[in-house]
Design goal:
The protein is built from 9 helices and 7 strands. With about 270 residues, it is an alpha/beta fold. Helix 1 (about 15-30) crosses helix 8 (about 215-225) and helix 4 packs parallel to helix 5. It is globular. The termini are far apart.
Length: about 270
């Protein structure tokens, strides 16, 4: 895609999951990438594998000093910041039993840390010819989930925040969008026990119109598009890359034909 080559991206949560796919895809497209995470070993290994175009920085989203060090390192190493991709999150959630401290910890990671990171990156993003911020949300932000209060509400906050950030930063040429992935096959699936792999495959079949799990490249390509020069008129939006999950009703792909059911029950009216 156009507008990626030579640009600089910070990817939070770059040591695992979608962050890995995003880092690989952006480097492949010619970008320089700084991975930010607290999982040092896999982050360092990924950076080493991707070569001179990628660096790893230990950065806890709950620490303002570590976030400032991340921004400073990126600018010092690669000369600026063009893209901020906020894929890090915690799934920790004890629902109705979650304490105030657990709520605050989750929001510090999923929401507040990324807000602070954007504030710190803003002076550098405004210098970019095509600055782009991509946040991550989930279908869980739109539905009630049994036993989960913290994670879904934090993601709903991100969707609102994306709109307000996009509005306020538009005059500075900074676009802000969000991505909503479905169930995605991640590296851990390759080493998971067979029963876990089978469970995920079943969920992919049952929950997605396309009948399978998504791939890291499919999510990364959506993020790549939002940062590219092909998306310069796109801001404040949420892009779904979920195999049709969000659009599918509770009956899934099963055909339920009320007229046929009524006839089978002896009803004479249509």
């Amino acid at each position: 895609m156009e507008g990626i080559d030579g640009k600089v991206a910070i990817v939070t949560g770059g040591s695992s999951g979608c962050g890995v796919g995003i880092a690989r895809r952006f480097v492949r497209a010619g970008a320089k990438v700084v991975l930010a995470d607290i999982l040092d070993e896999p982050g360092q290994a990924l950076a080493a594998d991707l070569g001179h175009a990628c660096r790893y920085v230990h950065a806890d989203l709950r620490s303002d000093s570590e976030l400032q060090a991340l921004v400073d390192f990126t600018v010092r190493t690669y000369g600026g910041i063009d893209f901020l991709i906020n894929s890090a999150c915690t799934y920790a959630d004890r629902g109705e039993e979650a304490t105030r401290e657990e709520w605050l910890d989750a929001y510090n990671i999923n929401v507040f840390g990324h807000v602070v990171l954007l504030q710190m990156s803003r002076p550098h993003l405004v210098k970019s010819a095509n600055a782009s911020v991509v946040n991550f949300t989930t279908e869980a932000a739109h539905a009630g989930l049994a036993g989960r209060w913290v994670y879904p509400s934090s993601k709903a906050s991100i969707e609102q925040l994306t709109k307000s950030q996009a509005l306020d930063l538009a005059p500075e040429g900074i676009r802000v969008n969000s991505v909503l992935p479905g169930w995605v096959r991640k590296p851990m699936h390759d080493t998971a026990p067979p029963e876990v792999q089978k469970a995920y495959a079943n969920w992919g079949d049952r929950l997605h119109m396309l009948g399978r799990l998504g791939t890291l490249d499919e999510v990364a390509d959506t993020v790549l598009f939002l940062c590219s020069s092909h998306a310069t008129f796109t801001t404040g939006s949420c892009m779904y890359v979920d195999g049709g999950h969000s659009a599918m009703g509770p009956q899934g792909r099963e055909k339920v034909l009320p007229t046929a059911l009524r006839k089978a029950g002896g009803a004479t009216s249509p």
